[in-house]
Write a structure and sequence with these properties.
Blueprint (H helix, E strand, L loop, with lengths): L6 E4 L4 E4 L4 H29 L3 H45 L7 H4 L18 H41 L13 E4 L2 E4 L6 E4 L2 E4 L5 E3 L4 E8 L6 E8 L2 E11 L6 E2 L4 E5 L9 E8 L2 E3 L11 H12 L3 H6 L5
Antiparallel strand pairs: 1-2, 3-6, 4-5, 6-13, 7-12, 8-9, 8-11, 9-10, 10-12, 10-13, 13-14
Helix pairs in contact: 2-4
Length: 331
């Protein structure tokens, strides 16, 4: 065979002669050659793609790497948010709710699930579903915890608003300014009545001072009575502070408020006098809680230091005898 052609020696002529193929042989030869070329091309393409990616594969690989990087960044962000939310939860339970005397949110509520596997059916068809599923599940869990935390903070806010109103209304300051000249002449409890000389219950405290001294409301509230009392209190002002608290300011020289008037803590209700059954200029001050009188001294410590409180208490037991006789009330 020379240059792809087949020859043979003719025995009769003793010469090389070209082999003449039949049509069938030629067809078969062409088919074999064609299949060989195709097979060779497939093998070459396979080998090339194995070691040298196509432009499309390069694009896909870049997109895949970018997605992986984004998912890693997203998971890092989720971890930061989870840490911040956990810190907020701890502050909510151990600070905000503790101050407002609220019970912490039960752990069972924080661990509530987010609806089973149905939302992730489509994601399971991906080539690497666990990688994406974990991220989506963390997002759902975080969203659920944010919703619970938001509801908790709304509850804390509502309680804080109510507590703020309660603290503003609760009688908690001295009815006479600390800068004004005054002294305690009679404390809360049993004592000798200055008029009958018999042991009787004193329902408030007596604070003596000069005529015309300003008397201040001990907390926010509404004036429910302002006038002359038929029970020996003389000119008096009664204030309803809500939450079961009421205060009485008696033996006033002048009343400066009217029934129905809304008061703010520290607002002047009248001036010190000696009207009614009184032995001298002073204020008879009462605090009522849920219909019963309580010791007003228990409500002064909120705006006084310990030394000031002890000094005030000592004046009730070691006062000048002359003031005891001229600045007392019968009630």
């Amino acid at each position: 065979m020379m240059f792809g052609r087949k020859y043979y020696i003719n025995p009769e002529t003793l010469r090389y002669e070209r082999v003449q193929l039949t049509v069938k042989q030629r067809v078969r030869y062409s088919v074999v050659m064609g299949l060989g070329v195709v097979l060779l091309a497939v093998l070459l393409r396979f080998g090339f793609e194995r070691y040298y990616p196509t432009p499309r594969q390069v694009i896909y690989q870049r997109e895949n790497n970018a997605l992986r990087s984004d998912y890693l960044s997203l998971n890092s962000t989720l971890q930061t948010l989870e840490s911040q939310l956990e810190e907020l939860k701890n502050r909510d339970d151990h600070l905000y709710r503790s101050i407002l005397s609220l019970e912490p949110v039960p752990q069972s509520i924080w661990e509530v699930g987010t609806g089973g596997s149905e939302p992730y059916v489509m994601l399971r068809q991906l080539s690497e579903p666990e990688f994406v599923l974990q991220t989506f599940q963390r997002i759902d869990k975080l969203a659920n915890r944010v919703r619970i935390q938001s509801s908790s903070l709304e509850n804390v806010y509502e309680e804080a608003v109510m507590t703020q109103d309660f603290l503003a209304c609760k009688p908690s300051i001295h009815p006479v300014s600390p800068g004004d000249p005054c002294w305690l002449t009679s404390s809360y409890g049993y004592r000798l009545d200055p008029f009958t000389k018999r042991r009787s219950m004193h329902l408030g405290i007596d604070i003596a001072g000069p005529y015309g001294l300003k008397i201040h409301a001990a907390g926010n509230g509404t004036v429910i009575a302002a006038g002359y009392s038929r029970y020996g209190y003389g000119k008096e002002v009664l204030v309803d502070h809500g939450y079961g608290y009421r205060t009485r300011y008696a033996h006033l020289q002048e009343i400066l408020v009217r029934p129905g008037q809304q008061l703010k803590r520290g607002e002047v209700v009248g001036t010190m006098g000696s009207t009614g059954r009184s032995t001298g200029p002073h204020l008879h001050y009462e605090v009522h809680k849920n219909g019963h009188t309580v010791n007003p001294m228990n409500f002064f410590f909120e705006n006084l230091s310990a030394d000031e409180y002890n000094l005030l208490a000592s004046r009730a037991s070691h006062h000048d005898p002359q003031f005891h006789s001229i600045a007392l009330s019968q009630k």
